[in-house]
Design brief:
Elements (H helix, E strand, L loop, with lengths): L2 H22 L3 E3 L12 E2 L8 E7 L9 E8 L6 E4 L9 E7 L4 E5 L9 E3 L7 E9 L2 E4 L23 E4 L9 E9 L3 H21 L1
Parallel strand pairs: 1-3, 2-4
Antiparallel strand pairs: 3-12, 4-9, 5-8, 5-12, 6-7, 6-9, 10-11
Length: 215
């Protein structure tokens, strides 16, 4: 086989392998049982790559045990490109809030309505390192507290981080008036997958090498 043909064959195998790897991995994480409100009880969606969304439900029904916050452990490989957006349609809870914590539970960012029409759109400082983070969705009015019972974010102000201590519990009360409200949610995530980017880079390099050999 000629060198050019070998390069083309290698490129085809590489891209086919990448498509199989991506198709074998879940793209949307569905809440398993009831995702908890603390680091220890969060649904663990880390290791799923790429993860493009999360779906689940919250409830303000007191008799069934209110479920006002869901917390998910995820991997973020590209912090500057990461964003999370709540989807707004008839089946989704009204006015959800998103929170992000690092692996130790330290507050990183939160958002309420910057996505427009009651949608939350959360981004994070680009200077943070890739790694494991915790993403929370909650009814508006809920606020994360540290071990001293102090708010971690200026939840009802400019959303700045107020406490350098990790998440311990949740306080506040939801703005939802009807206690029977049970609302589904969907969070769309922009989260480039490192492995896919590396394979794409390899494909480009192989194509460039093939062009050079033709000259």
């Amino acid at each position: 086989m000629k060198p050019l043909h070998r390069l083309r064959a290698l490129l085809a195998v590489t891209l086919f392998g990448a498509s199989l790897a991506c198709s074998a991995s879940p793209l949307v994480w569905t809440e398993s049982g009831d995702s908890g409100e603390t680091l220890a009880t969060a649904n663990d969606a880390s290791g799923i790559s790429p993860i493009l969304g999360i779906t689940g439900a919250l409830s303000n029904e007191p008799n069934a045990g209110p479920d006002r916050v869901d917390l998910f452990r995820i991997d973020i490989n590209n912090t500057s490109a990461f964003s999370a957006l709540t989807i707004d349609d008839f089946s989704v809870i009204a006015d959800p809030v998103l929170f992000l914590f690092d692996a130790a539970g330290i507050g990183v960012a939160m958002d309420d309505e910057s996505g427009g029409n009651g949608k939350a759109r959360l981004t994070m400082p680009s200077n943070l390192a890739p790694g494991t983070y915790f993403l929370a969705i909650a009814f508006a009015g809920m606020e994360p507290l540290d071990g001293n019972g102090d708010p971690i974010f200026d939840t009802f102000g400019d959303f700045s981080v107020l406490s350098a201590s990790p998440l311990d519990s949740w306080g506040g009360s939801p703005f939802v008036i009807d206690p029977s409200v049970i609302g589904a949610y969907q969070i769309d995530i922009t989260l480039p997958e490192t492995g896919t980017l590396l394979l794409a880079s390899l494909a480009i390099a192989l194509a460039a090498r093939a062009r050079r050999r033709r000259c």
